[in-house]
Amino acid sequence: MNPPTRITRLTLFMLLAVVAVALAACGDGPATASPAPQRLPAVTLPTPRPAAPSNQAAQPANPPASQASGQPAAAPANNNTTMSNMNMAAQATPAAQPTGGAAPSSPAQPNTGSGNVSLVPNVTYTLRTGLADGRMAFIGVGGQIEGKVNPTLTAKPGDTVQITLVNGDGVDHDLTMPDLKVATDHVMAKGASSATSFRVDKDGTFVYYCSVPGHRQAGMEGKVVIGQPANAPQAVQGADISRDPADVPAPIGNRAPMTHRIELETVEITGQVADGVTYTFWTFNGKVPGPFLRIMVGDTVEVRLKNRAGSKMTHSVDFHAVTGPGGGAAVTQAAPGQDLGFTFKALNPGLYVYHCATPMVAHHITNGMYGLILVEPQGGLPKVDREFYVMQGELYTHGALKAEGYQEFDVQKLLDEQPEYFIFNGATDALTKKYPLKAKVGETVRIYFGVGGPNFTSSFHVIGEIFDRVYDQASLTAAPLKDVQTTLVPAGGATMVEFKLDVPGRYVLVDHSLSRMERGLVGFLMAEGADNPDVFKADPNNPQTGSGGH
After folding, report:
1. 209 - beta bridge partners?
2. Residue 519 phi/psi, 5° resolution?
3. Which of 85, 389, 471, 545 has a CA 20 to 30 Å removed from the CA of 308?
4. What does the alpha-carbon distance between residue 319 and residue 353 come to, in Å, rounded to a whole number?
């Protein structure tokens, strides 16, 4: 082949290649054959979109085209779909069936599985995000759940349920139910919303919560109950074992020493820890903490300890105010049905812990066997308007935090010092729902505070107040500390704090190791009275977002 012929053929080949590339770029050229992608069933609801980054709702996207066959797709076993910031009426509008021709593949669903033409909800709920009792929460909107915090949502097998989440606080939230593979989009702007629809054909109890880190632990968790689950824990109700913090004997005042008789009965009782959670407490006189005892230095005290018949354990009492073997525990190891006693003289003024000291001592203490005894100095204590009695404890349950039903004691968690609950006065709601502290503006408040433990030190703090006086380590003869924000109280120790209420509102009792608040350790002091704008005044333009605090 001569050179000119080779050049001509090469040139022709290059021209054909250029033409082929051009045709391919225009979509008119031949395409390499490949298997057709498998298409998902048709989705009747608008395409989910992320929540709008402002207070304006995002516009809904165009609905995806249906399958080319023109026939409805078979329903998956578990149907759900999600949409955001759209008119809820759009759900009831079925997508038009195609008449033929190719259709693009359905867009991916970001949070859930495939939708289905039958996903028209017949049960709807709306939840708004916000604060309730100082914690993050889902708050019910409308109907029977109006205003309820983390309401239980119910439906029957076969129902299609729609849950709409509305952002009420301008903080990033979502709602997710992993067991159902259901979730809303994140809603980040106040007023933004997202909805998810799902159908479940079997009875069951499912948890919904916010998946933003820390929000579930901060309170954003509830339940969806479908039908009557066979494996659902039975509703449990234990005895109210919580001590009313106002249950304090009157001050002694100025008097001569005298003889007292103190009678304690050890009672083993199944009590309420939290909603739906019970536990067997071991108590003095049926409450946690035991009774507040009040004597004066120089008094002679006769102690009688009776272990109620029917108890399963031996019990005793050790008073930190006693000078003598075991604080009295050495002579009060009472078997069930037995009544033992001793006498002591109060030599030192102060606020002292008493507790059971029967081995394993930590087991008896964590189960509720602790209290305080006040030994007033000669002449008594300075007068105040209100006195309250609060003690902090720990519970080591076999079940995890909030696990429902009756909970057994877990000895390994106790030895590892890993409590499931931290509590004031025996229960997670003792000082919030049952017995909040109550006082009036202008009054001086005194709190007798102790730590039963058995293991953890408390950083006692009242959110929104400053302690005018702290009797450190419960010493009543040393000069008190003044102007204190937080005071340390060790396990087996106590303190006495005083402060004047200048502003009305709700003040929150906490251990400033604040993760313990999420395990139940919180109390309320409600102060009533006229506003005091010279001391505290909110900006009238502030949005109403509920009560909070650090």
Report:
1. 176, 221
2. -105, 15
3. 389
4. 6
